[in-house]
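Checklist before submission:
- one chain only
- standard amino acids only
- sequence pasted in full

Submission:
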Amino acid sequence: MFRNKSIEEFIEVLSSKEPVPGGGGASAFAASMGTALASMVGNLTLGKKKYIDVQEDIKILQEKTKVLTDELMNLIDEDAKVFLPLSKAYSLPSTTEEEKIYKEQVMEEALNIASSVPVKIMEKSHQMLLLLDEYADKGSKIAISDVAVSAVMLKAAISGASVNVYINTKMMKDRTVADKLNSYCDELIQKGTKLADEIFERVEKKLR
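Returned file contents:
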């Protein structure tokens, strides 16, 4: 369970030659830092008279953000779990024609499964960016810079998770499935990047 390790332990394993955690887990961790920063902004807004008109809105945002944070933390471990079958599939023998066919079938299934978690990381990160847009408008002004940092982390998570999908779809034999996954990820990148950049630029404009 990587989510239960200290940051130092996680970084140590991440930098080792162990196959997991890798880019997918790192992307989920980046996204969870983004959600955590948003929660901090919310906590600095709650209970403040200056923001009395948005208290209920912030409470709702905080509840949704807490769920996303927990889901993204779980995805750090889920990414490691779904990669293991793929790493084993690589080492299957492929000397005979039967072995080649079997390996191809196992690989195809493993590639699909390994792609599922990075896609979820992208989806959850985009969902958080939609919430972050409201944090930017209603959150405490003393923590507005943290909204921008959150946007950067979530944007990085989407981009990072995407290449963990593309590396798998590139090897898929079923190009219909691969193209569908690629198109979906392309869409998430486009929407996520646009929203993250807009939030960052809006905050930066207030600070400069």
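Reviewer check: Residues 97-138 form the longest helix (42 residues).
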